[in-house]
């Protein structure tokens, strides 16, 4: 494989982190794209306790509503992941064919429209359809943004730029938590309607897409490669030249994906269940229970997101000092400890909410590395295809996690206890990921391949 790199541009006129104004603009555009990507992707998880019972005609807050919410949260999250995987693989190839900027704009528009359409759905069937449309765009955006940033920023700042790009994920979740809280509070007496307004917020990214269209150009590195090379093929990723790289990226991504989605998909459900149990023990009214559930949901999600933000930034010194391979080992070992401790230790319900910080720090934080590690593995003409494939094909496997957790939790009298037990065993996944370390390729000190 060719490992030559381009000469580093003059530092004249550079700003923070040796990047000029345009490079920061590119990073910010991709940052917005990925942040709103996660924002739109996770909105359903916040509204599921009200959305699912309403569409099924079941009174909100009842035992059948709780069981149905657990089951359909798992099903719809798994469907989202399958659509996400299809969109990621398809648009990963598209980004190498038509360009990073065009693909970023197209995918942002797609997931914005798909999410907003969920606000008008009359039944679960239409909700699934609209979520599938959104999922295609959500999956496709990542590869375009990650490839664009890797190719535009200075070589020595690729790690910092990649990690900063991924900080938009926890920020996107903070925004989703905030908007859901505000809207739910304003429609507390009409929970059967509030979730529709939350979905309408999915239109916000459409405005950000115009920023991409106006200010961001295609990377020169991609334009040169696209004009000289043949069209990329997914099959090339399994050729002798690239097979080891593909296996390395896939092993690390699939481990992180299964763990993250199995844990994150049920944060609102678990925190709501804990609040309802606490409210029942304290004899609180229905309205007080609802308010407590929203407050605890906010604590759990904010703890997870704050941990994710810090964990993402910690991948910068970890990757630079230890290298990618040791970094993955440490994050996955600590991920297992965080998940098993959160759902296995005996503690007060309120204390368990704050344990989500440790899950965020490890399970969420490790994703900050994929925005620079996966683009590092592949040459320019295959960068979107390879990174998109590795990051997204694992979602087909990860889709089984939320489905299984939701199915187990919904088939029993103690749905909360069953969910906690199932989530405890999710901690085994990162331990299994450690077994794949012999196939992980170290990219520390490697220049971006042309």
Structural class based on helices, strands and sheet pairing: mainly alpha
Give the termini distance in whole angstroms: 9 Å
SSE sequence, one letter per element: HHHHHHHHHHHHHHHHHHH
For the report, how would you describe the main beta sheet? none
Please give the number of β-strands.
0
- Helical fraction equals over 70%
The pLDDT mean sits at 86
Question: Any overview of this molecule?
Answer:
Helix content is 77%, strand content 0%. Helix 3 packs antiparallel against helix 4. It is globular, with a radius of gyration of 21 Å. It is mostly helical and 450 residues long. The longest helix has 37 residues, at 286-322.
Write the layout of secondary structure elements.
Elements: H1 21-56, H2 63-98, H3 100-117, H4 124-152, H5 158-166, H6 168-186, H7 191-200, H8 204-215, H9 220-228, H10 243-264, H11 267-282, H12 286-322, H13 324-344, H14 349-364, H15 370-377, H16 380-398, H17 400-410, H18 415-426, H19 428-434
Helix pairs in contact: 1-2, 1-3, 1-4, 1-5, 1-6, 1-7, 1-8, 1-11, 2-3, 2-4, 2-16, 2-17, 3-4, 3-8, 4-15, 4-16, 5-12, 5-15, 6-7, 6-12, 10-13, 10-15, 10-16, 10-17, 10-19, 11-12, 12-13, 12-14, 13-14, 13-18, 13-19, 15-16, 17-18
């Amino acid at each position: 494989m060719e490992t030559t790199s381009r000469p580093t541009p003059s530092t004249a006129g550079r700003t923070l982190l040796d990047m000029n104004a345009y490079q920061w603009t590119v990073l910010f555009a991709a940052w917005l794209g990925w942040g709103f990507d996660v924002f739109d992707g996770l909105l359903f998880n916040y509204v599921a306790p009200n959305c699912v019972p309403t569409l099924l005609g079941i009174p909100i807050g009842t035992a059948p509503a709780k069981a149905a919410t657990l089951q359909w949260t798992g099903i719809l999250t798994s469907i989202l992941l399958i659509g996400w995987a299809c969109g990621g693989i398809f648009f990963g190839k598209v980004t190498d064919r038509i360009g990073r900027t065009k693909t970023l704009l197209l995918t942002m528009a797609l997931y914005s429209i798909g999410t907003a359409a969920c606000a008008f759905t009359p039944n679960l069937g239409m909700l699934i359809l609209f979520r599938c449309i959104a999922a295609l765009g959500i999956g496709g955006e990542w590869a375009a943004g990650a490839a664009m940033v890797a190719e535009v920023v200075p070589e020595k700042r690729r790690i910092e730029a990649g990690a900063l790009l991924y900080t938009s994920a926890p920020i996107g979740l903070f925004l989703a938590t905030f908007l859901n809280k505000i809207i739910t509070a304003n429609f507390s007496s009409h929970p059967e309607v509030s979730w529709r307004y939350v979905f309408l917020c999915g239109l916000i990214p459409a405005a950000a897409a115009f920023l991409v269209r106006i200010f961001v150009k295609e990377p020169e590195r991609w334009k040169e490669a696209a004009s000289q090379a043949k069209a990329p093929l997914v099959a090339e990723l399994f050729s002798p030249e690239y097979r080891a790289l593909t296996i390395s990226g896939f092993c690390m991504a699939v481990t992180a994906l299964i763990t993250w989605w199995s844990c994150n998909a049920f944060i609102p459900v678990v925190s709501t269940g804990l609040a309802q149990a606490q409210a029942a023990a304290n004899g609180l009214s229905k309205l007080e229970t609802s308010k407590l559930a929203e407050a605890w949901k906010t604590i759990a999600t904010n703890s997870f997101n704050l941990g994710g933000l810090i964990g993402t930034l910690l991948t910068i010194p970890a990757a630079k000092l230890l290298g990618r391979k040791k970094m993955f080992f440490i994050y996955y070992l600590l991920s297992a400890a965080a998940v098993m401790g959160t759902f296995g230790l005996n503690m007060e319900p309120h204390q368990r909410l704050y344990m989500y910080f440790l899950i965020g720090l490890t399970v969420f934080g490790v994703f900050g590395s994929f925005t620079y590690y996966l683009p590092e593995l592949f040459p320019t003409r295959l960068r979107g295809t390879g990174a998109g494939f590795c990051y997204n094909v694992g979602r087909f496997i990860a889709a089984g996690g939320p489905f299984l957790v939701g199915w187990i939790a919904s088939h029993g009298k103690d749905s909360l206890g069953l969910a906690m037990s199932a989530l405890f065993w999710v901690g085994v996944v990162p331990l299994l990921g450690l077994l794949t370390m012999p196939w992980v390729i170290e990219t520390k000190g490697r220049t971006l391949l042309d």
